[in-house]
Specification:
Number of helices: 11
Order of helices and strands: HHEEHEHEHEEHHEEHHEEHEH
Structural class: alpha/beta
CATH topology: Spore Coat Polysaccharide Biosynthesis Protein SpsA, Chain A
């Protein structure tokens, strides 16, 4: 028996160097690929040219350019013109009744389920003056035909010539601000959010009616002050000194949900052209706001939660959303979004919800 056990252990131990060596090789290759990965952020608006690029240029190839200013600059990462629209819902805010809130919701082109859930959420709330636009990138495949049909049916798709990637969310955010400034200036407030975020819109509007909040221009959300710029290449949000000059970012609010009044957004739409664009959306908005000629009050609102929601937190967060103790919740995927919205509409006060499952509600 002892001989058999020794033989088994010997076979296991004899293969250990091979296993360790294989893991080490794969780890080294993955690490090398991560460190030397091309930057997927491209400010070039020509999408066909983006697809044709076999290698991507570093962020600021012209290191002699003034990295802090874009006025009279040849820096290639300064916005020269507005990002072009492919689909634009011009009539979204062209209504007689006052528009109290525009939810500019960034979404990937194939996130049909999340967008449908958000539409049903808004329809069941039935709040007057609430508008939502989904901001997506371009599709060079069979998705585009479906997107065209979706846009024609719902009238809430804003598509720009932006390549779909995580680091290009900043360009979608700019696109949403452009849309607000041109087509939705009659809205009282602008909310930037994502398609996997649940917003307790009724309580948010009540919160925004606070006279003290309206007393000065503001940015509200889960806000961050004095965050250092990541200079380590292994960091997910690595920014080189060529990409952003300063060592710390100006105050900003995390991108899953922040709010600004209309006048601030209109001024922000012009400030976007005064500094180079870098691929961290919320930090870039904060940096652009710091260029305004007046002071912005940055409200850190604890009720705006920018964290991943899981089913273990379902009962607690559902009740908090219903009562307004929490204004937004960032979900971890469409299934969690479905569960949370299901709970929210099943149990909220005076709910007219009658379906057994939120995802089974008929499309509008």
């Amino acid at each position: 028996m002892k001989v058999r056990l020794r033989s088994t252990w010997w076979r296991i131990l004899s293969k250990l160097p091979l296993v360790v060596g294989t893991i080490a090789v794969y780890s080294f290759v993955a690490l090398f690929h991560f460190i030397t990965r091309p930057d997927d952020f491209q400010l070039t608006i020509d999408y066909k040219r983006q697809l044709a690029l076999s290698t991507r240029a570093p962020f600021f190839p012209n290191k002699t350019a003034d990295l802090r200013e874009c006025i009279n600059s040849t820096n290639p990462y300064c916005l020269k013109n507005n990002i072009s629209y492919t689909i634009v819902p011009k009539e979204l805010c062209a209504v007689k009744e006052p528009v109290r809130l525009l939810l500019a919701t960034t979404s990937r082109r194939n996130n049909w389920e999340q967008r449908d859930l958000q539409r049903k959420h808004d329809r069941l709330l039935a709040l007057p003056g609430l508008k939502r636009v989904f901001v997506i990138g371009v599709a060079n495949d069979s998705y585009q035909e479906d997107i065209n049909k979706e846009a024609a049916r719902y009238g809430d798709i804003l598509q720009g010539e932006v390549q779909e990637s995580y680091r290009n969310i900043v360009l979608k955010t700019i696109l949403g601000i452009q849309f607000f400034n041109r087509f939705c200036r009659n809205a009282a407030f602008y909310v930037k959010t994502d398609d996997d975020v649940v917003v307790s819109t009724k309580h948010l509007l009540t919160h925004l009616d606070n006279p003290q909040l309206k007393a000065s221009p503001f940015l509200m959300g889960k806000c961050v002050f004095d965050r250092s710029v990541h200079r380590t290449k292994l960091a997910r949000h690595f920014i080189s000194s060529e990409q952003f000059f300063d060592a710390t970012f100006p105050p900003f609010c995390e991108g899953s949900g922040y709010i600004m009044p209309s006048a601030v957004v209109q001024d922000l739409s012009h400030a976007l052209f005064t500094l180079p664009v870098f691929p961290i959306e919320d930090s870039f908005v904060g940096a652009a706001l710091s260029r305004l000629k007046y002071n912005i009050t940055v409200h850190h609102e604890p009720k705006i939660f920018a964290f991943d929601y899981y089913l273990s937190q379902h009962p607690q967060l559902c009740k908090q959303l219903q009562t307004g103790a929490v204004l937004t919740v960032h979900c971890a995927g469409s299934n969690y979004l479905d569960y949370l919205l299901d709970c929210f509409h099943q149990h909220r006060e005076n709910s007219t919800f009658i379906s057994e499952s939120f995802s089974l509600l008929p499309s509008i």
